[in-house]
Design a protein that fits this description.
10% of the residues lie in helices and 46% in strands. It is mostly beta strands. The relative contact order is 0.10.
Length: 351
């Protein structure tokens, strides 16, 4: 009898132990997600390239600091090239869309970078894109000879069919809030408006920023839309009334302001080789830069710029025929890394 009780006790103990281990494993399985792909955590450096598709490339830098060059060709050795003068990468939940100025959008898996398809219809000198409600919206410059033929390409992401929305005004940068798309219109400094597109009704409304106020960059922060002009105006756009909600003047000593970014309610922008900042809600902007970097490039200074999670990223275009450089800085102006890029690094995109 004692032996039987001992056997029963051991059996119950073993069962409890096995059940506990099984529950722990289930909990671990429930809290541990499978990796989405080798490019899941880190950022891409987009190298625009020169006059041929062979000169462009995409670098990936992982959160562990490990760098992978030319990720598109590594993952897709037999795929068609991405086009000439790649301009922009934008994302939906699972895909990355690579815009080439020569007239195509290459679609890849966002995390594995495996090739999916290429879209080349209804595109003419495309620039930048966003995704809204299962459709991609991409700005196009048309033939560059007119400011009346510029349009948005709309790609239905269920079947990659395309259509156009005529805007005019020399479209460039683009952002989205809800079902609304906003474009900057800059016509080489002569245009001074942004266009607001209701993607449900396709109604287009232009907001006049005032003569001389050419918008060159746009940012969305907590659903609020802001644009920066080369003449030194930081403007908030009210989408409810399609008007300018507020304007903050950049000091006249800071010329050619561009590259608007907002990170943690801090506004960043550039002028020549310097980075400046102020907080949302400030009524003045300091004339003292956060940092100034050394560049010998005639036209490639601050060719790429981004701020993400308190790190400043700068791309320098060098001579646009050989490799440029990209830098990481802290938001206090300390240099964190100095790196060799490809030809004409023009953007940073975070996965």
């Amino acid at each position: 009898m004692k032996q039987f009780k001992k056997i029963v006790f051991l059996a119950l103990t073993s069962a409890f132990f096995l059940t506990s281990c099984s529950n722990d494993d289930d909990n671990m399985t429930g809290t541990t997600s499978e990796p989405l792909g080798i490019y899941e955590n880190g950022y891409f450096v987009l190298n625009e390239g020169g006059g041929s598709s062979a000169t462009n490339s995409i670098i990936f830098v992982g959160e562990d600091g490990i760098r992978t060059d030319d990720v598109f060709r590594i993952e897709n050795p037999d795929a068609d090239e991405m086009g000439i003068y790649i301009q922009n990468i934008f994302f939906d939940a699972t895909r990355a869309f690579i815009v080439a100025g020569s007239g195509s959008v290459t679609v890849v898996d966002r995390y594995s970078f495996e090739y999916i398809t290429t879209v080349s219809t209804d595109l003419e000198s495309p620039r930048y894109g966003v995704v809204v409600d299962g459709k991609a919206y991409i700005t196009n410059n048309g033939d560059f000879g007119s400011t009346t033929d510029d349009f948005l390409t709309v790609i239905d992401l269920t079947d990659y069919s395309t259509s156009q929305i005529l805007i005019g005004n020399y479209l460039d940068r683009i952002a989205a809030v809800g079902s609304t798309v906003i474009t900057t219109n800059n016509a080489y400094g002569t245009e001074h408006s942004v266009s607001v597109v209701d993607t449900n009704t396709l109604l287009v409304t232009d907001i006049d920023l005032g003569a001389g106020n050419t918008s060159n960059s746009i940012a969305v922060n907590n659903g609020d839309v802001y644009v920066l002009t080369g003449s030194g105006k930081f403007m908030e756009i009210d989408l409810a009334s399609n008007t300018i909600a507020s304007t903050l003047d950049i000091p006249a000593s800071i010329t050619g302001s561009k590259n608007l970014n907002i990170d943690d309610d801090t506004v960043y922008f550039t002028s020549e080789a310097s980075v400046y900042s102020f907080d949302l809600g400030d009524i003045t902007v300091s004339e003292t830069p956060l940092l100034t970097y050394l560049s010998t490039s005639s036209y490639g200074v601050m060719y790429g710029f981004a701020v993400n999670n308190d790190v400043i990223y700068i791309g320098d275009g060098a001579d646009f025929s050989s490799n440029g450089s990209f830098y990481e800085y802290s938001t206090t102006g300390d240099l964190l890394s100095n790196n060799t890029a490809g030809v004409a690094p023009n953007g940073f995109y975070f996965n």
